[in-house]
Fold this sequence. Notes:
The complex is a heterodimer.
Chain A: H1 3-10, H2 16-26, H3 56-60, E1 63-65, E2 80-85, H4 86-92, H5 97-101, E3 107-113, E4 116-121, E5 132-136, E6 139-140, E7 161-168, H6 172-175, E8 182-188, E9 196-204, E10 207-220, E11 223-234, E12 238-239, E13 251-262, E14 267-287, E15 295-316, E16 322-335, E17 340-353, E18 360-376, E19 381-383, E20 387-404, E21 408-419, E22 423-437, E23 440-451, H7 455-459, E24 460-467, E25 473-478, E26 486-500, E27 503-522, E28 526-528, E29 534-561, E30 564-577, E31 589-597, E32 603-612, E33 623-634, E34 639-646, E35 652-653, E36 663-666, E37 668-676
Parallel strand pairs in A: 5-8, 25-29
Antiparallel strand pairs in A: 2-7, 3-4, 5-6, 7-8, 9-10, 9-37, 10-11, 11-13, 12-36, 13-14, 14-15, 15-16, 16-17, 17-18, 18-20, 19-24, 20-21, 21-22, 22-23, 23-26, 24-25, 26-27, 27-29, 28-29, 29-30, 30-31, 31-32, 32-33, 33-34, 34-37, 35-36
Chain B: H1 4-24, E1 38-40, H2 41-55, E2 56-57, E3 70-75, H3 83-88, E4 98-103, E5 114-117, H4 125-131, E6 138-141, E7 153-158, E8 161-166, H5 168-173, E9 177-178, H6 180-184, E10 187-188
Parallel strand pairs in B: 3-4, 3-5, 5-6, 6-7, 8-10
Antiparallel strand pairs in B: 2-9, 7-8
Amino acid sequence: MTPRIRAALVAPTLSLRVTLPLALLAAHAAPGIAQSPQDPPASPVPTVADPTSLDLEDLLEIRVITAAKREQVVTRVPAAIHVVRGEELARAGVRSIPEALRLVPGVHVARTRANTWAISARGFNDNLSNKLLVTIDGRSVYSPLHSGVFWDVQDTFVEDIDRIEVIRGPGGSLWGANAINGIINVITKPASETLGGKLVAGGGTEERAFTSARYGVALDDDAHLRVYAKYTRRDDAADGVDRDRDAYDGADSGRGGFRADWGPANDRLTLMGDAYEGRIRQRVAAPSLTSPTGADLVTDRVDVHGGHLLGRWEHTFAGGSSVAAQAYYDFTERDDALFRDAVHTADLDVTYRLAPDGAHDVNFGVGYRVQRIDVRNTFAFQITPDERTDGVATAFLQDEVTLVPDTLRVTAGCKLEHNDYSDFEVQPSLRLAWEVDERQTAWAAVTRAVRTPSIVDVDARLTPIVAPGPVPVVFSIFGDDDFRSEELLAYEAGYRVQLADAVSLDVAAFYNDYDHLRGGTPGTPFVEPTPVPNLVIPIQLGNNVEAESHGAELAVNVQPGQDWLLQAHYGYLELDVSEPAGEGRDPRHIAMLRSSLQPVPGLSLDTTVRYVSELPAFGVDEYVEVGVRLAWRDAERGFEAALVGHDLVHEEHAEFGAAGERSEIQRGVFFVLTWTF
Amino acid sequence: MAAAATSRWLAGALVLASWPLLVARAPCQAPSQDPPKALPEYELKAAFLFQFVKYVQWPKEAFSRADAPVVVGVVGTDPFGELLDRTLRDKVVLGRGFEIRRFAKPQDVRGCHVLFVPHRESPRTTEVLKAVADEPVLTVGEHADFARAGGMIAILIVDEKPKLVVNPDAARQAKLVVDAKLLKAATVVRTDK
């Protein structure tokens, strides 16, 4: 067996850090596993009476009906995994990565402001929620400053996304630190699958204007290249307090990038990169000692820019073992009225897979990441020292053991990591998969995962509030030199079943036990003489919070006909935090209902209804929202026109954040014209 | 905040427009007025297998008799279900009928003229190809790298349309002659060394 080809099956666009771990979780693709929804339904109404009457040329013009296509191998992964395909993103009218994640069961995507999203799975959501690992084509995009993701700068040519893989729950032993509550991998298509041109243009009431263009060429038989550029203008949402006012939180951004793939499958080289620039409007209250109100209202324009270059080499040796090596450089800078940070990242990973030997499938790898972080300190946001270079070294080993062929598999793995803040971290995991029969898979897992300290946890002084007066009172949060990793011990189980040819069900349940979570303890007040005498009330960060959570996620797919797909998702979460302030920020219930229909060839109609229960901590009410996309496609001319409505139920509604810090998300409509040539 | 009134109107119209369509679709019948131009994936692939037999010439010794059937094999879990049997049953090409065989493992493969390697078997591509290496067997796969790995024809689905990738060297090595018409309709690749 050639592992490289096997890996390619598991993940047609294999990328080292992104999809290889998936491949590792997935085991041998053996006969006799659950049927996928793409398998022919029992009694299809053939749209061509006798397909053999069609000649070769006719056949090549036929559109393929694969409405419910799923990565078959996903059904065998012993984890709470969900994959959203590129076609689903297109059908749902998705224009950004955060909006795409709304299609994943159990993931809470909340739009705090027009360009700020709070995204998490299984609790602890925040604008910069810090327990997710997010990668785009194998490149980690969470910030070392606070372990959160700036979603407003994570983007690509959306039409070239092959799929988004989301694993809820910990994946520490494969993916490393921060993969504590979930892993999100965005994977774009290889250049060989995006040949030719695509022009996209559109606009509307909230998504004011967007245009993007991609062109892909074959350089020769084995070398393909694509380049793209895009521009997006997003309107302001409504102010969270005075709904008749604009929130002043819109944005303009531009981005360009490329991807090239060379060589055959057993010796492939990939090079990709992009660069972006954006301006995000915001009104912020900048704490101040001299202001009579304790804060200056600043009308700000956040300048963001960055880019990356990534190279990857995958090689299969004659003996069947394979190696994948990846290196990237990433730069990102953010210039905000309250802080500025610039992060340079260089990362190298090498993964090796032994030629599968009977019952064992062994993988191991090493990696090193070095990051230089520069911060411009302000009164509100201080990091000491303001320049630093940190390194993280990792190593992992995993063995997937087949106990009973095609029936019982056990995956044992461990990741060892060394970082400059908490030294060595060990993240082991044990997963068991039982393929009951062709239609059912059950799995269970016990995992230990950690969130290693971020710079803010250790070296920050944050001053969000100043109470004005003759001697101003300053509330400051201080980092903890001895801050240790937050820990999770997770117990999970899941079950997937193909109930009928057209009905599949996926359910996962979990119990999470968190320890040493970040919390704050009031310290002894002290007086600071400069710049004006003020009394500081310190809040000392520490690992003094514990939490427990349990919950479940359910996904059901029903395909009533070949051109109609229904999906229902539901997520339940119960989170108990020893610090009450940590509760009430996550919805107890999330649900989604989606219908994807092609009433006649060329016409498609998609409707998405989502429900999110209340967030008591913020006074955010439960809500139901609806999105609709109606599209007409002329396959011969490669032309498509779509009309998309989003957040249609309410004129405006709140999704996340304290009253003064959130915007109201507005109902919107936009059109999209796409020309493929 | 822009154009709130317009957007409210459009939004309402969209929602209203969408639901009756959904409800009306419930019995889910294929519309009959348009010429049908779509097929389920494996019905289409079965039709391709049939066409390939027309455009590929086997050496004489591949068949025991002049009217011996073309044996189409599927290795591993068969994604066609009964579609392959239904499509090829009672069909005749150049005086030959069809016979369908299914092989559980690569090493079981023998005595076929066309061998279909489903997606799920892609990891074993090398093994499968080795099993039929010296025989006049037309190998057909579904994986993007199938033809480059030494398979003869890959049927890919790109943007909902089928695409063929043919490796004529691999066919020649197995003493098969691929018609120019098939080559013209396909992307031609060579085996990766």
